[in-house]
Give the backbone structure.
Amino acid sequence: MKKKLLSIGAVALLSVGLAACGNDDGDKDTGKTDGSSTKSVGESVDYKITGIDPGAGIMEATEEAINEYGLDKWDLTTGSGAAMTAALKKAYDKEEPIIVTGWTPHWKFAKFDLKYLDDPKGVYGGEEQIHTIARTGLAEDLPEAHQILSNFKWEEQDMGDIMVAIQDGEKEEVAAQNWIDANEDKVAEWTDGVDKVDGDKINLVYVAWDSEIASHNVMKLVLEDMGYDVTLTQVEAGPLWTAIADGSADASLAAWLPVTHETYASKFEGKFEDLGISMEGVKIGLVVPEYMDIDSIEDLQE
């Protein structure tokens, strides 16, 4: 009887050992494409690119990239900016492969070690700019706000400070106010020579990107300090441009040009005013964690 029990125990131990060996092989199958995985990059992420809201210009550019690079097996999932960063964090914490639509400035580049995939076909364009746009007639109706919005310019670091603070748990308006308090000279340049008003209403529209949440909360507080009654309205990119073009919204600080919002800028040409560039050197593209052994969109063809 003792020999029989010993035999059963030995089999159990052998089974556990074999299972452990199997788990080791599975752990190696991470899609890092560094020789430790038998899967291609596409197989490791189920041929999925994690995107954001379907109306965003970066999604249109990514659909074009899928076609241009012949990525017939690949799917672009839609969701939101928050859902995309949540998926990124989940994968990053486990050091698993993931490919997301990305843009800078964005707090994720401060929190995670990430890189853009090279885009040899230039589908995503080069460096972009963030523009401030307004409905036609704003200069006549709200000249003070028009001047402030035209003067609005800042750096990626400015926006980044606010985005990181919000991500770390600070309320949006508190993070924006803290930045204003620490950058009074810069804000003074936006409002220099502009008279205060008495409760004039203005509606700013923006997309739910962390970058635009930061800029619009700052501008809301600046305009309120100048006497405006400010409404912030969050919409997707298409409705944003439509609202500016038909005059139902007054202005937006969220126009990414020349690539991201090219479709909308062309569609509504002549129906909005470009008040100028608020930030230079912004970028969009496909982003992966640095630990993934992949450097180019062309690598996704494998």
Q: What stands out?
A: The radius of gyration is 25 Å. Strands lie at 48-50, 75-77, 100-104, 114-116, 128-135, 201-206, 229-234, 251-257, 272-289. The mean pLDDT is 88. DSSP finds 13 helices and nine strands in the chain.
